[in-house]
Amino acid sequence: MSKLKIAIQKSGRLHDDSVALLKDCGISIDNSKDQLKAHAREFPLEIFYLRNSDIPQYLEEGVVDIAILGENLLVEKQKNVNIIEKLGFSKCRLSIAVPKRFEYNGIRSLDKLNIATSYPKSLQQFLDANGVSCNIHIITGSVEIAPNIGVADAICDLVSSGSTLFKNNLKEAEILLKSEACLVQYPGISTENQQILDDLVFRIRSVIKARNYKYILLNVPNNKIDSVIKELPVLRSPTILPLAEEGWSSLHAVIEKKNYWDIISNLKAAGAEGILVVPIDGMMV
Ligand code: AMP
């Protein structure tokens, strides 16, 4: 039987979330990540653990059918592959940062500077598009220390919380692109493997969707049901079930995860009691 081949990062920031996503899709992996290849149990999937920067090449050559990688890497490697789904983790941005004391007055301030980066192509593209010329200094690690040790005037690097910039006395000057982990596909995938991929994508979408919602159960006196429902921004209409206790009902609904603490305060104020909020494993809607 044919197996779908997926590349995931061998080690690094994307590894754990990639494995967790597959696990949430009901796909557990047999071998440890010390192996180059592993097989999934209960699903026709072969996992290749690869170096992050090598993944686009393996994908382009069709060694693997799909991969989980950072969107920024596709831009840097200039690969035109099909993004099937953005996965919602490893969110970051590629930014130019300058020393805090540097008087930054827009892109022109970068003219003729030495900029250290591990992402020279993305940076060059940005500079060309803005008609600015700089010296690009390629560094593979710890780019953030370059201005402090006098190697560069500014840096272009990935930023998520901004704490690395802060610790190194740098400030963000320009955002070049935003990135997150995504599922990408080799264009020449076989028909057989495309079917397996469709099944996997269905699972991934339902897991990602479920991560943004919660299931809520609450007890409400019957005379307050209308006012409680007004405070419940439900996906569809809530379910109302009578409680054994006369005059009370239980309301069940799916609500968006964001702001749910505020929603709960409003529900309590409207008369809800015994509120339970539970995670959802998958949403096939
Ligand atoms: P790693 O090989 O572990 O450095 O992972 C690099 C990938 O993680 C990048 O290609 C990004 O897509 C993603 N990433 C997310 N946030 C950051 C960050 N703050 N710094 C570096 N990489 C990040």
Please provide a written account of the structure.
The protein is α/β, with parallel strands linked by helices and 285 residues long. Helices cover 26% and strands 32% of the residues. It has helices at 15-24, 55-60, 71-76, 120-129, 163-167, 191-211, 225-230, 260-269; strands spanning 4-9, 37-39, 45-50, 66-70, 82-86, 92-99, 114-117, 135-138, 154-159, 170-179, 181-185, 213-221, 239-242, 248-256, 273-279. Strands 2-3-1-4-11-5 form a six-stranded mixed sheet. It has a five-stranded mixed sheet with strand order 8-7-9-6-10. A four-stranded antiparallel sheet has the order 13-14-12-15. A hairpin with a 5-residue loop joins strand 13 (239-242) and strand 14 (248-256). The protein starts with a strand and ends in a 6-residue tail after the last strand. The structure holds adenosine monophosphate (AMP). Adenosine monophosphate (AMP) binds at residues 12-14, 52, 70, 72-73, 90, 92, 158-160, 179.
